[in-house]
């Protein structure tokens, strides 16, 4: 007697309220989700023009692309699997396609479902037209993605979200209307940085008043959400360990931002 193998599709644990800032991104996603909801009332032609069958969240690393994908799945009451693009493409020719077919089949069994392809560019970059093995494999993957893309329809509620730092190399065939809708998720601006700091101040239970949040937002210019999170994580860790200089306060948070910035500069210099 064999126990059923557990699915790689999970119930998403991120909500839109866990994400700080990015009102424009939320607006774009909500609008597309509302169109998805109306898709079946539309004539085929209009549906093709208006309703995306997936999203490409693109922008620099650590800006919450995966977070937005999980919150989107949550809003759809869907299960989710995050698949690493390079892991799929690093397989032998033929095997990659089989893997993708399997992922879609499993998504249908777990529907409503969202499949997230991290580093989507690795599986969906532009057809080069060259006749070497690599580009042929790439073409086959894009072609297969197009066949599998049914959209989030009542019969087949499977949505695909690709995340990438390189929208410029994504195959144009995937970017036509009614295929993937690109959504730009850039580095956070001042108000987004403040909102992100607020989220993580709550999450790590590191109290930060209005004035402190303002200062953190100013001090973290150029940083991504992941880096802002690490300021609060380190503050909390320091508190747990009783590290000097004692309880978390504005000064300590400021020092942590400074240390993070210094570490970033050191990295840049060594590159
Ligand atoms: P990559 O391109 O490197 O895969 P990504 O854009 O997908 O990165 P995420 O993995 O979604 O980034 O974000 C990493 C972490 O950074 C999140 O788990 C979260 O803790 C924090 N983070 C990033 N952006 C935000 C945000 N807007 N609000 C709250 N937390 C954020």
TrEMBL record:
Family (UniProt): Belongs to the AAA ATPase family.
| UniProt organism field | Dactylosporangium siamense
The taxonomy runs: Bacteria, Bacillati, Actinomycetota, Actinomycetes, Micromonosporales
Domain named AAA+ ATPase is located at: 51-189
Q: What is this protein called?
A: AAA+ ATPase domain-containing protein
Q: Which residues of the full protein are shown?
A: 360 to 630 of 677
